Amino acid sequence: KNTDYHVIVKEKREREEAFARLNVLFLKDNPALEDPDMYASFIRHGMCRITDLPPKIRGPTCESPGEYTDDGKYTLPIHKLQTAILGMCEDKQFDGRFHIDFGEEFTPGEHENVSLVVDASGGRWQTPPESTTHKPIAHGATFNIPCRLIGLPNFTTTDAPQHKYRVLPSYLPGGECDEYKYYVGVHLTPEEYASGDNILNLKLKEALTYNHLELNDGAGDIKVSTFPIKLKHTKPAFSQRDDVPDVALVGDSVLGVHFFSGSGVNSGMTMGRELVGCVQDYNMNINEIAKCYNEKAQKIASQAIEKSCTLAKQYNPGEQALRDNGCDIGQVQS
User: Fold this and answer.
1) Integer angstrom CA distances of residue 177 from 100, 166, 169, 218, 269
2) In three state form, how does the secondary structure of 249-265 look?
3) For the stretch 287-306, what's the b/e string if a residue is b when 16 or more beta carbons lie within 10 angstroms of its beta carbon?
4) What number of other Cβ atoms are within 10 A of residue 148's Cβ?
5) pTM here?
């Protein structure tokens, strides 16, 4: 707000689709919320305005992330954060210098007067390159469960850590079940991944039992996804071009760590914050911005990859999988 920059955001999804995200966000270690003034502004713009929190589940609170009670693992629906950011950016303090074009992508003619493109769309060419020889470092399964299928006990879950199995509420903006479903994420061994529905049902039951939850009849309504997990890391994060504007990659365009919770969104927001700092420090001196941002973005990405490698090593992926995913093989855990 202390510059004269104009910012145009191209969101290829329509507004309704873009703001219907079921994902949840971990507040812990999110740099955008460390500044008390920034956090207060998020609150004013509705970040924590949730009408009905799921009962009996740890984690879905919206207290100050500086107060790390309950292990500090607070969660928040992505669409609430998106709405708050949009409200902040559309404030009159920007004097019309910011707007989002929903349902649109950049066209060649629009690049003419653009100084810098920030690509946070994901899907960039990654290193190590995607190939049939790139072994997964882990396997995962996710379950999206309508809340009417969850039977709640008469006691809370505060006697056990919430996120061992990542049983989280997935909020819906004005949707069914008082704005949430349940999301369950579990890791699978290669053998479990190949075993089919019986193992998946067992893993789901384990996760719910751990959180003192019961599954009611109607399991056919549960959306189940299984997938191999491959870590991806793009270098460099800033590309200087002759024929088009320079491009800074942010978030999922730099790294892929799904589905190790708490790394993807927070890493992207950290990169965005650092990019803004580099632009302000060097006043659009592209050479200096490129050097500044590449160094900071690669450090952030490396930290997220290292965190994911540490988690993955608990599942004994093997030395080849660790190498393929850019992990240090020196400290493989049993």
Assistant:
1) 30, 20, 11, 15, 30
2) ECHHHCEECCCCCCCHH
3) eebbebbbebbbebbeebbe
4) 12
5) 0.79
**CA dihedral angle for residue 182, residue 253, residue 13, residue 143, rounded to 10 degrees:** -20
Cβ neighbors of 243 (< 8 A, separation 6 or more) are none
Alpha carbon dihedral 85, 89, 91, 92, in 10-degree steps, equals: 180
Q: Are 188 and 139 in contact (CB under 8 A)?
A: yes
47's tokens: 């970040």
Residue 167's beta-bridge partner residues? Answer: 184
Token output for 322: 């660790």
35-44, 99-108, 118-127, 209-218: segment of lowest average pLDDT: 118-127
Structure tokens at 97: 């210098």
Tokens of 220: 């056919």
Give CA–CA dist 59/39, Å, rounded.
18
User: How would DSSP label each residue in 216-278?
Assistant: -S-GGG-EEEEEEE--EE-S-SEE--SSS-EEEE-GGGTEE-TTSTTSHHHHHHHHHHHHHHH
**For the chain, give me the number of helices (H) and strands (E)?**
9, 15
C-alpha triplet 204, 170, 234: angle, nearest 5°: 90
Q: For residue 223, how many other CB atoms are within 10 A of its CB? A: 12
Tens of pLDDT, residue by residue over 157-193, are 444 444 456 676 665 555 555 556 777 888 888 888 8
